[in-house]
Amino acid sequence: MDYQQKLAEKLTILNERGSGVLIRMNYIKKLCADPKLRPGFLSDKVMEPAVKYINKKFPNIDYRGNIQNLTCIQRQKSEVLAATASFYDSFLDVIEFRDHVYELLNTIDACQCYFDIASNFDFTKNYLDLISTYASVIILLSRIDDKKVLVGMFNCAHEMTNGSSDPSYPRLGQMFVEYDHPWKKLTEEFGPHTRSVTAALLSLKMVYPRRNLPAEQWRSAQLLSLLSTPASMLDPACCETMACEYLSMEIMERWIIIGFLLCHSSLNTNQASQELWKMALRSGLFLNLTREEVLNIHKVSEDLFDGMKGYSKRIADIKECREHVLVNCGAMHRERRHYLRVALKELFKVLEDEPGLLGPKALFVMMALSFSRDEVMWLVRHSENMPKMKTLDDYNDNQMAELLFFMEKLRGLMKKYNHVVQRYHVQYLAQFDALLLNDTIQNMYVCPEEESVLLSSFVSTLSALSIKQVDSKEEFDFRGLRMDWLRLQAYTSVTKAPLPLKDYSDLAKVMNMIQFHTRMVDSVEEMLHETSELSILCSYPRVFEKMFTQSSEEMTMKRYLMSFPSVCSHFSQCGHPLCPEETEILEKRSLRLCVTFLEQIAKQTSGVVLEICAEQRNLNDQLLPKHCAESISAARYRKQKKPLPKKGEVQKEKPGAESLRKDRSVTTNMDKLHMMLTELCSSYSLSADIIVFEHVVVPAEFLLSQLEMRLTEIIIKMTNYNQTTQEIARPSDLLAGIRSYTASMHCLAGYINLDVTRLVKSVLLQQTQPLDSHGGPTVTHYYTTWYLEALLRQASSSLIVHCPTMQCFVSQSADNELSFRAEEFSDVSGGENVLKRMTIIGVILSFRSMAMNCLKDILRKHCPYLMAPIECLRNFIYPETDIKVTLGVFELASAAGLKCDIDPALVAAISNMQTDNTSVEEEFKLSRLLLVYVAVSLPILALDPNSLYSQEHGGHKNNIHCLAAAINQLTAAMFTVQNKNIEQQLKEFLLLASSTLLQLGQNVERVEVKNRESIYLLLHMIVEDSPFLSQDMLESCFPYVLLRNAYREVHKAVFMPTA
């Protein structure tokens, strides 16, 4: 019985198995050809004699007689056996596959099966797929150069280990020898199958020519247009050969070319065969076998027929077809791609606006995707393999992004509105297809029992469908129904079948339509994979990257660039369980391509954004106060009625002049930048994330990362720091630049949904640290370095003065610098050194205090709700409070810029300086001695001409007023660490300092006492700055009249005329 032949099941299983074996052979070929992946023993110098010997003697290798050449294998037989086992098993899979294929082909020939792509579509397609897959496996096997070495070494190691050859080795060796010239052997094997193969191929004569039309005919027929016939827009898209409408043209060409090469005798006997074959030969130069492996169809055909008797005309046909391809094919496919770009865009816009049309027009979507995929794949394989010629531009496409984009958009629509498609087709199947099929069955005059059971089950299954199943999100599975239809095709396609399908064309049409409708219900993803999967691009990374580069250079293509990384999500679908080793390679390549594309898009987008920011910053700079001098001067000229500038002089344009336009059609640079930004940001709308294998890639994060990196670089560049000349930008200028950039960056949110606030915070927070997240120097680093090495260093040399009045540092002019005589300071060098160091510390602390005041003002402005509780906590700290609690609160307050009685940072620094060798009492003595030393050294400062107090600056010209901060803060920190009474120690310091300064007043020599009053004021500053000393304490040890007189003298000196 024909039912027992299981033709449908065998075809399904062998096609799946054949795909795996084909991919496995391709993997082995690439592995052996790649120096990085090639098995080590094939390149090992030690193994070279064995490799040469096996290649020369294969398959009849004497493993015992010529042991000298095989000694290296003998030594490593276990390793060789393990390394070659998987390759050997893979080649055995080819033998097993070949045996099953020939067994099935012989059975089909014996059953005299009827093939017609329009009637028994699945049966014919599976049959032709099996033939082309088998031929591809054998061709790819013949291209593996190291196959004999791999098999020979395995068998050698096997015999050395087990004492005998592997049982399958003779057949495997024979197969390798036979297929050294694969086409010759294949044509001999397929000679008996010529009738069946030719019949199956000739069934394409109505389908293939209709698909292989130039763009002009597509355009005249308004192919894929829903708007061409508005009245029929809601009508379901149906035809008698629904599955043929989206059948890949590449697949049909593979069937035709390979089929007629295997069964070439029909080319000389059948005119229809010859015409179909020549049409396929005119379609291109290369045919895809798998991955990047192609067949040069004209060369292979010519080589096969060359020397064959009676094939001279066919060779002439081949040459004529090749010339036709070289002259016409590139331009024809270019026009097709141009038409498809417009057609897909229109189709998407209509369906996006009215997604309900996806139900009746689902066939249009599948056709559009299939046609586009064919054109993309044709261009890819020809771009990679095309010989150098004048019309090479026809094989480059700088608008590929648009075609890929709308393919992805249509795929996205089908997935998004899957429930709409499902709902429509469930109703169609239950309320139309079931009734039509039932009527068709009733009109059949013969219906055997087996066929009747299958047909009845179809009707009952479809009739039971309900819209409620869709609403309740029930899972549908019609795979069993479709498999039964394939079985029925097999039963009814054999000779002398009780129910010959060729006599019941209505049944075939109805069932083919039902099959398409069921696939729209339960396997839309599978259909999308079948019609639009572009995993071939993973095998052609160079071409893929070239397409991206060409598209990115076109202004109109920038909005479509996101289609390139989106296509990388297809690559996970091209693997096979028979070749799991390939998965890791595909995953790495897919991720690399996806990340490369996203980084390039992000770089372009961030570049445009930051260029806009730079332009805006230049405009904002024109409004800075420093640029208003010329405007003020011009206003004074007008007020004083002075002569205007001469006519020859060009007047500088005022800010805002760039916005005045006489002609709106004239585009400015900013217009172009904003247009480019609009285009680039539009591409991000394609998808919020891209899934590549098991990785979720978010395009917007790449843009954020690029913006963060580039903005960081720009901020650093804006500092203009020059270590050699110690130059740096003014902080106010830098702040204005940063504010301009951040304001412009926030405008980016109008183009793309991006968290700009997070970006700006991340960048600016990193700039508060010495190093950023990439380990690079920050603004904080540069300004800290500059303040320490330039400003504060010069302050220690009295070239720069700390000005408490204006809360800043002031440069002193060279005219005010006084020269020193060495003999005047030679006897007090020690004391001078301590006071100088204390002054430097005071300057640093004063600078820090200014910075903290700025921080306090900023925090009070931005988060007053946070500052108020912190101030309240600080104010509740009393001297009796536990020191750990005190320091904890002060640390919080200092971080907010608030001044504290004890500086927690200094306490921590001094604590870290302590060693285990010194006792606390010893440290206490040294601290007291330091205060004594400072106190008794204060009168020495009167010898310095720069110790003069400046009323204008509110301090001394040599910065000794900063000693007040140094003495108070260091004393508080030191005695806090030593757990001593701070107030008591400062009182003792005040008594000693007052005593030494009073002795200074008894000195009558003019040279020593000329700055005496300025030094008296220093003592008053120390008390004023201290939270532990008071004016009462000062008056008890130092007469207030001396302070009053000192203030009068220093202020009087300002108004006295110089001699």
UniProtKB/TrEMBL annotation:
Name the record gives this protein: NCK associated protein 1 like
Region (Disordered) location: 639-662
Organism lineage string: Eukaryota, Metazoa, Chordata, Craniata, Vertebrata
Tree of life domain: Eukaryota
Organism this protein belongs to: Xiphophorus maculatus (Southern platyfish)
Pfam annotation, one family: Nckap1
Example of a GO biological process term: neuron projection morphogenesis
GO cellular component, one term: SCAR complex
Comp. bias intervals (Basic and acidic residues): 646-662
